Each structure stands twice: as C-alpha cells, then as structure tokens.
C-alpha cells in the first residue's frame, strides 16, 4: 500500500512537471498573437496585460528559476516590440533590421526587470509584492526613457490619454501615471490562498484603485479653465515627404497654402511651418542674399522675401550651420556644426532660434560609443553619418508681439523632443503662452500609428503644463490641443491649413 502511494506521487509530480514546462509557454504565445492582431490599433504595451505575468511567476505550478523566467521574458518582450516597430527598419533601408533588433532587445529588458522583481517577491503578500514590483517597473521605464532609445514605443501612460486617468500627469507626471497602471496590473492576479477573502484581495483592491483614479481624473479635468488660445495661429501642412533623387522644396507648397489662407480668412498672429521647411542656412548669412527661390530658400531669404508679404510673425523649421570652437589634438579649432532649429521671424533681421536639444540616435547624431575607431571600422557604410546634427546647448523661449500689440512667448519643440517631459519646454512655471511642436513625419508615411502616438505624447505635454499645445506636421496629423489634452482640431493626411480662429 505504501509502495502504491509512492508510485502515484511520482506520477503526479511528473504531470505537474509537464504542466510547468508547457502551459506558461502556451499562454505567452496566445498573448503574443493577440498583441499582433491588435497592433494596428494599439501599441504593444497597451494591448499587453502584465497581470498574466504575475499569475505565471507567482503560481506554485510555475518554474521558479530566475534565469529561465528572465530568458523567456526577454524573448517575449523582444517579440512584442518587434511586431510593432517596423518603422525602425523602414527608416534605415540597408541595415534597419539590425537597429530594430537592438531597440527590441532593450525593450525586452523591461520585461526582464519586471520578471526578476516578481520572482524575488513571489512569496510576499500580493499588496506588498505589487508595490515592490511597481517600483521596479517604473524605475525600469525611467531608465529606458533616459536612454532615449525606446521611449517612443514604450511609455505605459500613453495608452490612457483618452481617459480621465491621464489627467493625473499634471500631479504625478507621466511616470506616476505609469506607476498607477503597473500597480493595478500587478494587483489583478489573485492569490493562491484557500481563503477567498485573501485570494481576491488583490483584484478587489485593483478595482477600487481604478475607480478612485478614474473619478479623481474627472475632477482634475473639470477644474481646468480652458480659455481660448491667447493668440491666433495658422499651422500649415504641406503633405510632402523627402524622397531620394527628388529635390526637397517644401516651401513652394507651404507658401502657396499660406497665401491662400491669408487671402481667404485674413491674417493671424503667428504662422507655423513644420520641421525642415527651409534649406540649410548659415547663422551669419547675409540678410540681403538673393538665390533662386525655386531650388533654395534660406532663412535669410525667407525673412527678406516671404515674411514681409505675410505681414506677421512666422515660426519655421530650418537646419542651421555655424562655426563652433572644438578641442582637437590639444588645439582649439573652428568647425561647422549643424543644428536642427525652429526659427521665429518677426522681421527682416529679427530672428530667434530654438536649437533642438534631444536628437534621434543614428538619424541625427552618432552616439559616443559609435565613434570608437574599431566600431566605426565594423559599421556598414550606410550607417556612417556624414553630417550629424549637434544638440542645442541652451533653451530659450521665443518672443513676439501679436497684432494687438501684446507681447507673447512660445516654447518650441522639434520632433523627438515631444516625448521627453523633463525638458525645459515643459516647465510648468514658465510664462509662455503656448507650446509649439514642429515635426517632419515623412519617414512614417507607412506607419501612421507612429505619428498618432507622438500626438498622444503632445496631449500629455498639454495636460502636464496646462497650456495650449500646437502641432505642425509635414505629412499628416497637424493638431490643436487644449490644456486638458483634448484634440480640438486635427488635419487628415492632406495638404491644408489649420487655424485657431476658425
């Protein structure tokens, strides 16, 4: 009899062992398929629920090997990132898949951080474990945001931008909103106790926290005074993209759209053209220079020929070149540097510049480690940047006087800067009247969800600062966003103009 019981016990363990090996993997595959199915609607972190991970790695039936759990989490995170980041490989035609793989690997490390945290607190009560895992997950998100590599596809808070939960960003920042979401996810896994009051304490607490946060967001939004934008703006969208072998002359279409709108609807306080709207220009260029405006339009030419015709303030995107002192071989030498700028033109000689401070890795600058000689020898020629941009060294608001004689000021963000809430553009104590984002999105024509994701980031910047945010894009998505993060107006993918006074 004793021998029979022993045999049965061995058989039961064998069955449990098979369950340990196969069931978690089957569940993961199902979740990846679901993520793939919804990727055209949501970003990976939005359609992925972390609560199954808590259930899997806290379950007594699951393997408790931290190495095995980490490796599987890395693969899962890599796969979920890969199915939604095709724009990375498309942006770099020859070696884009390598860059995409590196980005997805970094993305997968976030899953590893969460998994390791769950592993070490798996025996703790669910409430305490949820707090510890939330801290680890939020810290991991902060670290990856600091790296700047996967920020544009990874912030958990962005999926709540259409809900009252997003309003908490004005109090606890977007990372605090992410922390709230992590906490709710990590509570949703029920405990393994036989006592129902203990087993369901996590899900019940998660439901309570969700209700409180949702209701609090409604209160926060209702307390915001959404007065009209303090000045009138015209945002001009050319609906063009830069193509190889085709001259890049967006100012031709932008000028035509601007003149038509001014003639039909009248003048405004500020006209905005998107990123890279003009040709490369020198800071020290002659204001009276004359060139063929069909093939080249510098900021000096714009100030001389176009701004006086428009008769109002103009913000335009333009790459600027200036001589910068650098230390080389112990000597101070002058070398040309490129700055991706937004330039406010108020007259033929009155110009104010915002130099982009946060550049896109590989697309606009070479990270320091790539400049090592042995790495540069290994890199393919297609990744050798010949004229990388230089990040701006200081931030300044851009002032202008509106048509009524009132002094105004705007903070400018160029493209990638929309994703980083800690930049000085988003200082809540700033006296700026609005925040203006100028974008070039010609690289994401086949990935419209990427630009919409960036507009969602701009909506969060509006919530955090409680200021009007104006988005001027090249291809699609030009939008006007009020201080509650609501999109008041948005252009479809067409050539057109969006105005605040209409």
Strand portion: 15-25%
Question: Judging by the overall fold, what is the CATH architecture of the largest domain?
Answer: 4-Layer Sandwich
Terminal-residue CA separation: 88 Å
Mean pLDDT over the residues: 80
| Shape by Cα distribution | globular
* CATH C-level category of the largest domain: Alpha Beta
**Could you say what the CATH topology of the largest domain is called?**
Nitrilase/N-carbamoyl-D-aminoacid amidohydrolase
Q: Describe the largest sheet.
A: 7 strands, mixed
Number of helices: 14
What structural category characterises the helix and strand content? alpha/beta
C-alpha-based Rg, rounded = 26 Å
Query: Could you list the spans in which at least 5 consecutive residues all have pLDDT below 50?
Result: 1-20, 39-45
Please write out the topology.
Blueprint: H1 2-37, H2 44-47, H3 51-58, H4 66-82, H5 86-91, H6 96-120, H7 126-147, H8 169-187, H9 196-199, H10 201-222, E1 233-237, H11 250-265, E2 270-272, E3 281-282, H12 299-310, E4 313-328, E5 331-345, E6 351-355, H13 373-378, E7 398-401, E8 407-414, E9 434-438, H14 448-465, E10 468-472, E11 479-481, E12 487-490, E13 496-499
Parallel strand pairs: 1-2, 2-4, 3-4, 8-9, 9-10
Antiparallel strand pairs: 1-13, 4-5, 5-6, 7-8, 10-11, 11-12
Helix pairs in contact: 4-6, 6-7, 7-8, 8-10, 8-14
How would you describe this structure to a colleague?
- 43% of the residues lie in helices and 16% in strands.
- It has 502 residues and is α/β, with parallel strands linked by helices.
- It has three domains: 2-222, no CATH class; 233-357 and 394-499, Carbon-nitrogen hydrolase (Nitrilase/N-carbamoyl-D-aminoacid amidohydrolase), CATH 3.60.110.10; 360-391, no CATH class.
- Strands 1, 2, 3, 4, 5, 6 and 13 form a seven-stranded mixed sheet that branches. It has a six-stranded mixed sheet with strand order 7-8-9-10-11-12, covered by helices on one side.
- Strand 9 (434-438), helix 14 (448-465) and strand 10 form a beta-alpha-beta unit.
- The longest helix is centred in the first third of the chain and has 36 residues, at 2-37.
- The radius of gyration is 26 Å and the shape is globular.
- The model is unreliable at 1-20 and 39-45 (pLDDT under 50).
